[in-house]
Amino acid sequence: MTDDQREAEWPVHDSTVTWETEYFDAGYDRVERPGGERANYYWLSPDDSVSIVAVHEGAVVMVEQYRPRQRERFRSCPVGAVDPGESFEEAGRRELREETGYRAADVELLQRYYSEGWLRKERGVVFADGLTPGEQDTDEGEFVDVVTVPVDEAIETARGEPANGWTLTPLLLAREEDLL
After folding, report:
1. Nearest to 170 by CA among 131, 124, 116, 130
2. How many CB atoms lie under 10 A from the CB of residue 9?
3. For residue 63, which of 35, 112, 16, 102 has the smallest C-alpha distance?
4. Using an 8 Å Cβ cutoff, are 144 and 63 in contact?
5. What is the pLDDT of residues 19-47, one digit of tens each?
């Protein structure tokens, strides 16, 4: 089915932005369902983001940080926004350097996907190797500790409490590609 066929089946009659911030817009679309009734479908529209699976000397490079929204500390793959005009690979290389200090000789886009049905953003998963350690260059307000986890413990680390999908999914994709 083409995009035009989907649009004809689910016509959008109106799109309303109800809230704008520097990080995302929020709103809803007034959509006609195939049966003819209309309903509001709410959305958030942040920038696309990237998760980086980086391997150095038999270990996955991760970050540990407190996440105020969840009120917990997490160990996770580095994650960050994709800047306008930037590819997932470029963003992955940049975010890895900023958050961990590691510079990657090689990056490869493993997958693009929508992580949530109500988010209008894609998440890219980038695999990085050929790493050279360096100094972190975090943004103001980022408090990130760099940790390494043996490759054979990385998935179990992501599944531990508190578990997080923004790390588990990228690690499983990397394992599926025989990179872990």
Report:
1. 124
2. 11
3. 102
4. yes
5. 999 989 999 999 999 999 999 999 999 99
Separation CA 90–CA 107 (nearest Å)? 8
Strands 59-67 and 49-56: antiparallel
Within 10 Å of residue 22's Cβ, how many Cβ atoms?
4
pLDDT at 6: 59
Whether residue 3 has pLDDT greater than 90:
no
Q: How far out from the chain centre does Cα 118 lie?
A: 15
**170 CB-near residues (< 8 Å, 6+ apart):** 51, 52, 53, 77, 110, 125
Distances (CA, A) of 5 to 9, 30, 39, 42, 147: 6, 18, 19, 22, 48
